[in-house]
Amino acid sequence: MQITEGKQVTLHFSLKLEDDQVVDSTFDKDPATLVVGDGNLPESFEALLIGLSAGDKELFTVPPEKAFAQPNPNNVQHMKRSDFPADMKLEPGMMISFADANQAELPGMIKEVHDNLVIVDFNHPLAGRTLKFEVEIIDVKDAD
Question: Which residue ranges does the record assign to the PPIase FKBP-type domain (predicted)?
Fold first, then answer.
């Protein structure tokens, strides 16, 4: 059975940077199971699975535009240090959860910390990166 929209797929996958640094992988643990179209994978990654069947192994190179987009300079915000708790230790590279206007979780990475200013990057951490997406399809069946 081939993968199409709405099929339940069990697979192993790995997501790597161009230098082969592993970002995420199931190859060393239990496989992942998802329903194509349920939002567990970005649409562009799901599209790569369409037409594959159990037993297929593929390696895809995914450019930033098809992965997590290019970084948007408008997603880098300058915030007052006083916007953060006084006892909070802020360091570059630190991920902090913020709430957007709809109170949904919005992760931001601290880029710079100054006396009265904190620069926070709300771009996806993989924005601008070409990724290697490796999959091994274990099972494809109709979703329950």
Answer: 6-90
CA 2/CA 140 separation, integer angstroms: 7
What is the C-alpha separation between 8 and 38, in angstroms, rounded? 10
Read off φ and ψ for residue 115, nearest 5 degrees: -50, -50
- The pLDDT tens digits of the residues spanning 95-138 come to 999 988 888 889 999 999 999 999 999 999 999 999 999 999 99
Is the domain spanning 7-68+126-142 CATH 3.10.50.40? The answer is yes
The topology under which CATH files domain 73-121 is Thrombin, subunit H (2.40.10)
Tokens of 85: 């708790």
Backbone angles phi, psi at 83, to 5 degrees: -75, -10
